[in-house]
Each structure stands twice: as structure tokens, then as C-alpha cells.
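User: Predict structure, ligand uridine-5'-diphosphate-xylopyranose.
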Amino acid sequence: MDKQERTCHVVVIPYPVQGHINPMIQFSKRLAAKGLQVTLVIFSSQTLLTDHPSLGSVKVVAISDSYDTGSSSTGDYLKQFQATVTQKLPRLVVELGISSGHPISCLVYDSFMAWVLEIARQLGLSAASFFTQSCAVNSVYYQIHEGQLKIPLEKFPVSVPGLPALDADELPSFVHDMESEYSPILTLVVNQFLNFKEADWIFVNTFNSLEEEVVNWLETQRSIKPIGPMIPSVYLDRQLEDDREYGLSLFKPAFDSCMEWLDSREPGSVVYVSFGSMAALGEEQMAEIAWGLRRSGCYFLWVVRESEEKKLPCDFAEDSSEKGLVVNWSPQLQVLAHKSVGCFMTHCGWNSILEALSLGVPMVAMPQWTDQPTNAKLIADVWRVGVRLQANEKGIITKEELEKCTRDVMEGERGDEMRRNSEKWKKLAMAAVGEGGSSDENIMEFAAKLASKFE
Ligand code: UDX
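Assistant: Predicted complex:
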């Protein structure tokens, strides 16, 4: 059986940003562990730091998306990206089949690239769409696609089946971006549903118990398969070996300095701060965070990407060296799994949230854009594993607000309750991806169905 399944060869194609690459690497690894042959194909103009030809049993192919990043608007990039993939993918798929001796039977593509379904059909292959973000935000986009929510939205709060009522600042930011430079992204996220009912499988990076009501509601529209949380299973039980790699990183993590620094702190004493791979904060906001962290009296480990460093207050990192460490990129999973970390101040990217939930770390939510405001709503009001920072009338989160909320999570009764809730979600996440769990079963079913075509 195992040998037979290996003859099923699947190509997995992420959208080329870190927050989409990471979960699709993990999905590829899980498929390989179920006996499928898997090739991960990344079209990107950025260089992958760890330019592996393989990640364990997953073969990796990195291809230039031919994009000149100097001359860009979001809309231009998206058009050119689609044109390049459409031109290069069909031949590549055929060649991968020939060179491996196992023809490809299915394309698993990021739902941002719904048009790959056409390519799969032209090649006579099965097609699976992989939604990297929460079922909650995807339901909002689905409602827009179906015309149930009309943009521009005029009345708040908004009702979406399976979700609490959402105020304007709790909706994905793109719904407010019709006239801005991000309007092509609103089209992109809504177009995830163009052929939603035609794809052979819909995978969602969530787990049943985490988003039960909204998963059940979306199920009334078509069958969907929650397969998350897509984070390396080794971290789910805090078995930290010398496994430094999430997979393919676009940034270089300061592994040793983070780990050494954390090792010398008390359990639960550190606030880990990160805004992911894309968010860019204003200078005034960076200063408020800096002074707020210092006022909180807590130890802090703050990821400030190289491109953002100039926004830090002068000499802040040096002057704070007794209490804090600032790095350009961290090994986030290992950091969150470290016993010294007491809470995570996060921009609420979906991967960061799944990682924190799976490792039982409570959060201070500071959403920036895209899906993050909706994710923050779930953290604070649905799962009750954190608090959301509130901006002042100028849209700034002040140092006082930051200090207060950080203390709420790190200390006192509310913090204890959030920690208990975080532990509960950690167990449920482990159960979903463990053997026989709901997400694991969905992956098994996919592998078995593909294999049965070869019987
Ligand atoms: C993007 C979007 O912004 C996010 O809202 C969406 O849900 C997914 O795509 P990003 O902003 O980078 O992603 O955030 P997130 O989803 O949290 O992904 C970041 C990934 O980079 C995580 O897997 C995290 O572990 C990793 N990371 C982040 C590091 O390894 N080191 C760091 O220092 C910071």
C-alpha cells in the first residue's frame, strides 16, 4: 500500500510570501508522511535563504517569477505573477512527472491563485485549493463574493453566519480599501471563491473545534476540509530538538542569540513581540511600543525587521539591553515554545496565532491590516486567550495602553484565565493534528482517495 501511494505525485504551489509558504511546507510534509510523493514549487523574485533542493522527503523547486520589484504596483505584480505561473507551470508539471518517473496526479494551490484550477483541468489533473487564512475571514470574503455583503459596507456591525457581529475595525482591512492601492488585493481575496465549488478539495488551515460554527456554516455551501494547525508537529509537545528550520525562510533568524538570551530568563517573564514578515509601523507607533515595553518592567524580545530598524528611537536597543533584546528575525516557533516566554504581542497574522495557540501562549493583539483585525476579535472575544490593544483618537496605541494590557496578560487574575484558556486550545490543537484527530483524518482521506485512483 505504502509503495503504491508513493506513486501518487502531488505538486504544492504556495503564494510566495512567508506567511503562505510556511503552512504549505508543513502541509507538504504531512502529505509526504502519509506516503505521497510531493514537490513544492515556489515562484518568487525573492531569494529563499535556505535554498534546499529538498526538505526531508519533499522536493523543492524555486523558480523566478521574472518580476522586477523596482517598478511595482500591487496590481501590476499580481498580473505578472499570474502570467508567469500560467506560462511556466504546465511544462514544469509535465517535466517533474517525467524526471521523477511518477506523473503528477494533483495540484494543490494557494487559494490566492484560484486560476491554477484551469491549469490542472487542462492537464487532466485533480485540483485542491488551500486556504492559508482563518475560516472566519474567508467567510467574510465569501459573503462578498456571493453578494450577501455589499461593498462599500454602510452599516456596522456586520452579520456573518457563524461569527460574532463584526464592527468596522473588526473586519478584514481590505473591505475598506476599495479606492486605495490595495483594491487589487480585495479582488484577489474575493476571487478565491471564483471556482470554490469546482475544485476537487478545499483545505483550510484551521481545525474544527477552533472555528466550529463558521466551519459548519461554510460546510453548508460545499465540503471543506480543515487540516490545521499547519505548524511542525514536533513543537506541539514542546519537544525542542536542534530543529532550527521551519522550512524555507526569506529572512535569517538570530537563533543562538535568542535562545541564549531566553535561557537566562525566569519562566514566564518575557514578552515576545513580533509583527510578522510584512507589517510596517509608523515611527511614532514604534516609539510608543518601545517606551510601553520599557514601562511594563517586563523582559522583552522584540523582532524588528532590518527594513524597520531605522524607526526605533535612537539608541533604544543599546539602552534597553538589560531588559530587552531586539533582533531582525527570530526562530519564532522555538521562541514561543520557550518556557521563559509569558506572552506574545502580535500583529495577529494567522500563522502567528496558530503557533501561539498550539503552544499555549496568551497574546496581546495589535492587528495592523488584512485578516488581522478579525483574528484579533477571535483572540479577545471568542477564544479569550488575549486582549486587544485600543488605539487613541489619532489611531496610535499609546505606551500607557501597551503597559496596561501587557500587565493584564502577564499578571493577575485575567492573565491566569487567559493562560488556562490557552492551555485548553493547545490540547485541542494537538488533538486535531494527532493520529486520528479531525485534521489528521482529513489528510488521510485525501491521501487515500488519490492512492485509490492507482489501484
Ligand atoms: C501574512 C499576513 O500578513 C497574515 O495576516 C496572514 O494571515 C498570512 O500572511 P505575516 O504577516 O508574515 O503573514 O504573519 P504570519 O501569518 O504570522 O506569518 C509569519 C510567519 O513568519 C510565522 O510562521 C512566524 O513563525 C514566522 N516568523 C515571524 C519567524 O519565523 N520569525 C519572526 O521573527 C517572525
